[in-house]
Structure of Argininosuccinate synthase:
Amino acid sequence: METPACTRCGRRPANYYRTSSGERLCLNCLFRSIEDTVLRTIKKYQLMIEGDKVGIAISGGKDSLTLMYLLGKFRKKGELPKNVELIAFSINEGQPYSCFYRMARSDYVRKLSDEFNIPYRVFTFKELFGVTAAEVAHGLWSKEINIHMCTIDGVLRRRAMNIIGRQLGLTKIATGHNLDDESQTVLLNVTSNDLDRFSWFGPTPEVDREGFIPRIKPLRFVREEEVAIYAHYHGIPLMELECPFVYNNPRYELKFTLARWERDNPNIKHSLVSFGDSLAKLLRERTAKVPLNRCRYCGEPTSGDVCRVCDLISRAGLLDKYLVHLRTLKLTDTQSPS
Ligand SMILES: [Zn+2]
Ligand SMILES: [Zn+2]
């Protein structure tokens, strides 16, 4: 039996069946389609504008490495808005996370950094917060407050990005979230009955919230398997070591649930993301009118009295240590000449 020809070019043999559209694609057309989707997302939602200074958050996984590769390639070909500055950075959470998981690919990041002229920096939780994710987790767990390591890590990582963003003078932070991540987020917000979290969702950066660096997700309409295929054929390393905490992370289960549902509804991931986007838009119209407070302890913007970071750190019994660290950071800030 002969291999069917690619639906798009009609010339080369098809190598990939795209369930959501029913197309059979050759690798060439698949790669072009992925690049077009990412570029279209950047343009349609104005993820970047002339003169933006964009931080690329590198986790070490294939998604963020592919993002860095694509943004570097687009800029080199003049396909990004003019004078967009790109800076890549990683956050080292400290043991037991980063020992392998996040740092394993730093050699490859440095290669991309040279190839596309994108400066790269590594920050640690220790230098940003004075404590590691593991210390916070152990503090909480010893008081029988059972919060998942990935939740603690996520709360600290989101804050870390804001601190880094301010330090580097970034106007946007780009992350490697793909369509699967985004559709999982929608389901997670629904199943944990967390309506407020939808106000963080959506394709366009939240620009007018003081103290928050807007996040952009150029890969959010690309399926995870397509990112993986793209990465594989472009020499981008696929992660061999998974985060040790992934197996009881609620997202892990959702991956399989979504895959099952997708058999009956090939567009379910797109539908979920569109639904989340519409809901986010409604919510933002409402929350934009609510002024943000400043956290009683750290002064960061928050909707309540105490921010999530200080809440976790204080329940872990580490608030004093954290506040002392913050004071020394602020002192060095005001002492530095710039
Ligand atoms: Zn083709
Ligand atoms: Zn705080």
Notes: The two ends are 69 Å apart (CA to CA).
